[in-house]
Specification:
alpha+beta, 4-stranded mixed beta sheet, about 15% strand, elongated
Amino acid sequence: MRPTPIQYAHALRATVGDLAAFRAAITDLERVSAFVGIDPTFQAFFAHGEVPTDRKEELLHQAFRRPIGAEAFAVAHLLLDRRSIQELSAVVAAAARLADVEEGIARVRIESARAVPDAERTSVEHAIHEAVHRPIRATYTERPELVAGFRVTVDDSWEWDGTVAGRLQRLAAHIRTTSV
């Protein structure tokens, strides 16, 4: 049975000393992930079972002017050796979530029907920060089907839906439960 991305993330966290070193390893893994995912030819090369792991590692070493750290390279090596390099972006995401939890940062996903201007982002993020009482890391997604308004999800556990689509869904559900 293969380890999951979160298991790789926990193993990486256990091998580095402090949080700053963990963040540095995550940055290195992001660089490797971007390199591996940049071109379908690279993806095929790194995923190919016939290419020896040492050839793949050699290409990684040659690709980076600033070398990647030993811990990040060890994770990349394991994924290469197990022919699971395509999981690297999931490992990076899991490790970043782990670091955010350790730092007490709330991960906030903000969905809206249109792009949110910078000035509006600042006020939205400030309001969310005031509501959750801790620093936040916000990501924005455009979803035209929401019609208007915002849907805010904090740490994948709390959601507030202030979209027109959400209100219409709640209205439809209410009508279904109250009609005979």
